[in-house]
């Protein structure tokens, strides 16, 4: 006779494997989105640079050089592109964090339910005089579960605070990348 229900144990293992597959899928999707973002950014920068070089190749005299200067890269445009890239990358990572958190919370909930069921099944087969030990074990499990819930809430708050801080930093820096504000700061 076994203390554990093997079918429940197999069900727990299958649920864990499914969760791992979901996590892997989310990671691959995010890596793909980040790769697309990088390639699109590189392609746009290369196209702009090729166009600038073409314009510079038309220069034959000082007046033409002066006219072509408007096509040269400007620091504020580059800063705006960098800021836009960082916002988009931040969005990819934020979405990944949300998705991973959902999967992990679901997995934890499912695993906890399965483990509680396995433990309850095991307690059905303990000797009669083991009541105090069983009670102590149950109390320890409840305490551990409560501690984990508290830790999880604290982690969510810290993550939310860090995300808000990063978003505020980006939003604060955004106005300084426009041409008008750059001119005002240097004047």
TrEMBL record:
Compositionally skewed regions (Polar residues) per UniProt: 150-180
Family annotation (Pfam families): Phasin_2
Chain spans, region Disordered: 150-187
Domain Phasin: 7-107
NCBIfam families: phasin (TIGR01841)
Protein name, as recorded: Phasin family protein
């Amino acid at each position: 006779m076994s203390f554990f229900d093997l079918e429940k144990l197999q069900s727990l293992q299958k649920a864990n494997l499914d969760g791992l597959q979901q996590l892997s899928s989310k990671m691959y999707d995010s890596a793909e989105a980040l790769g697309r973002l990088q390639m699109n950014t590189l392609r746009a920068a290369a196209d702009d640079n090729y166009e600038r070089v073409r314009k510079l190749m038309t220069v034959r005299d000082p007046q033409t050089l002066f006219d072509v200067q408007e096509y040269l890269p400007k620091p504020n445009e580059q800063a705006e592109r960098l800021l836009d890239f960082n916002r988009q990358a931040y969005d990819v990572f934020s979405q990944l964090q949300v998705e991973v958190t959902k999967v992990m919370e679901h997995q934890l909930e499912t695993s906890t339910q399965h483990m509680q069921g396995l433990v309850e099944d095991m307690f059905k087969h303990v000797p009669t005089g083991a009541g105090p030990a069983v009670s102590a074990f149950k109390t320890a499990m409840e305490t551990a579960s409560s501690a984990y819930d508290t830790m999880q809430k604290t982690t969510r708050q810290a993550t939310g605070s860090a995300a808000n801080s990063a978003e505020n930093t980006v939003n604060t820096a955004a106005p300084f990348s426009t041409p008008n504000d750059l001119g005002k700061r240097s004047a």
